[in-house]
Amino acid sequence: MRIIGGDVWPNGHPRQADTLRNMTTTANHVNQSQSESDSGELPDLAGKHLVLGLSGGIACYKAAELCRALIKAGATVQVVMTEAAGQFITPVTMQALSGRPVHTSQWDNRSAGGVANNMAHINLSREADAILIAPCSADFMAKLLHGRADDLLSLMCLARPAGKVPLLLAPAMNREMYAHPATQRNLAQLQSDGATVFGVGAGFQACGETGDGRMLEPEQLLEDIVAFFAPKVLAGQRVLVTAGPTYEAIDPVRGITNLSSGKMGFAIARAAREAGAEVTLVAGPVSLGTPRGVTRIDVKSAQNMLEAVVLLVPSASIFVATAAVADWRPAAPSDKKIKKNGSGHAPSLEFTENVDILATIAQSATGQSGALFCVGFAAESHDLHENAQAKRLRKKVPLLIGNIGPDTFGRNHNTLLLVDAQGSIALPRASKLSLARRLVGEIAARRVASISSPQEKS
Ligand SMILES: Cc1cc2nc3c(=O)[nH]c(=O)nc-3n(C[C@H](O)[C@H](O)[C@H](O)COP(=O)(O)O)c2cc1C
């Protein structure tokens, strides 16, 4: 058995090296974020240094929360503000939150980046892993588009080494400003110039109008930024994930379900999207938020889940069956509530076996041809290795993931055993998101191998 440990991402993501580089200069922030993360895992942005640029918009109030979220996620943050941004939030607030002096002027002769050469626009951008403009005003986009450089932030964006320091934009403005052809033209051109433009939210705006143009919420931006830095090991793949329990109705008010929370499957969907895949998530009845950028389809029963999966499989290249699907359903659910009748006799229920979704898909022509790489999950109570290997062979899937049911249902952490034709790999106890990222790396490696030698699938 191989055991994978440590805190690197799959396929050599250089997070540890980055972390060591920054630890020497940012001990306070790294310590703070480590103490806030669970089970000693490195936080998502450990080792990343971001320049957070604020331009003039109401959404500057969200930039304060975003700054905190970035630091909590392990990043170090250098704030640079336009003059207009200073009308909406003070540099003092941003300095207190980032723990670093805020830069606002290209004429400020304070040492920046440890070099006292009066060139903050050069020094600040050279140390950054990315420049994030949040909020990015319509005016600032227009400036970027034309390569203008009459204030520190625009000057820094223009002077950054574009091949090394990506530019990330989080637009924020009134709905009419956002919809204006000039803004849309600028957004498209900035993207083709290499900038990454995050989406906008819809809803009530500070001006009193309702529509598109709100800056994304800090936690949404954080998820997008983490995804931006993730290695794109699943680029070009279309991943279909099932998650959660199913609910088999007995009557209109009662049913049979299980304690699966959906957390493992949702984490896999998020990790696959971070890795560059187009992801569809078929979710049983759970109360979890949809990961950013993932298409979600809610279903209730095993039959509903099967129907959704059968429809979606033809456009998928990887199928990860994480859902804890009920094996049986009541044979004849009542259309009225089954009531006590005073006889003291409990009703007896007859059951019908549900179709095995994973086996059906894995043993279909698509599954067996190698066009679809199938991954199954087994929730066991004992003899994990033997049970997982037996289930893998029975279902005819190239990769099966074993976990202990009571140790995973509803929990934020888990332990996984990956079983394939070569043997098994144990992923020690970690957060489900961390395990999902490692699993995605393992799936990506096997997917590539299965395309080059399809006969070795099982
Ligand atoms: C109260 C108020 C709110 C504003 N909110 C926004 C906004 O949300 N988005 C935007 O693009 N511009 C907004 N503006 C206009 C910008 O602040 C203005 O275009 C400014 O010149 C931008 O400067 P900068 O891009 O250098 O930061 C607002 C202006 C005012 C007076």
Primary descriptors:
458 residues; alpha/beta; Rossmann fold; nine-stranded mixed beta sheet; five-stranded parallel beta sheet; 17 helices; 20 strands; binds flavin mononucleotide
Structure notes:
With 458 residues, the protein is α/β, with parallel strands linked by helices. The protein is 36% helix and 22% strand. The chain contains 17 helices and 20 strands. The chain has helices at 15-23, 27-36, 60-72, 91-98, 120-126, 138-146, 152-159, 175-179, 181-192, 218-229, 263-274, 302-312, 357-362, 365-369, 384-395, 405-408, 432-452, and strands at residues 2-3, 49-54, 76-81, 130-136, 167-171, 196-197, 201-204, 210-214, 238-243, 248-251, 254-256, 278-283, 295-298, 318-321, 328-330, 351-353, 373-380, 399-404, 413-420, 423-431. The strands form five sheets. A nine-stranded mixed beta sheet has the order 1-20-19-18-17-14-9-12-13, with helices on both faces. A five-stranded parallel beta sheet has the order 3-2-4-5-6, sandwiched between helices. A two-stranded antiparallel ribbon has the order 7-8. Helix 3 packs parallel to helix 4 (91-98), helix 6 packs across helix 9 (181-192) and helix 11 crosses helix 17 (432-452). The longest helix has 21 residues, at 432-452. It is elongated. Residues 4-37 have low confidence and may be disordered. The protein binds flavin mononucleotide. The site of flavin mononucleotide has 15 residues, from helix 6.
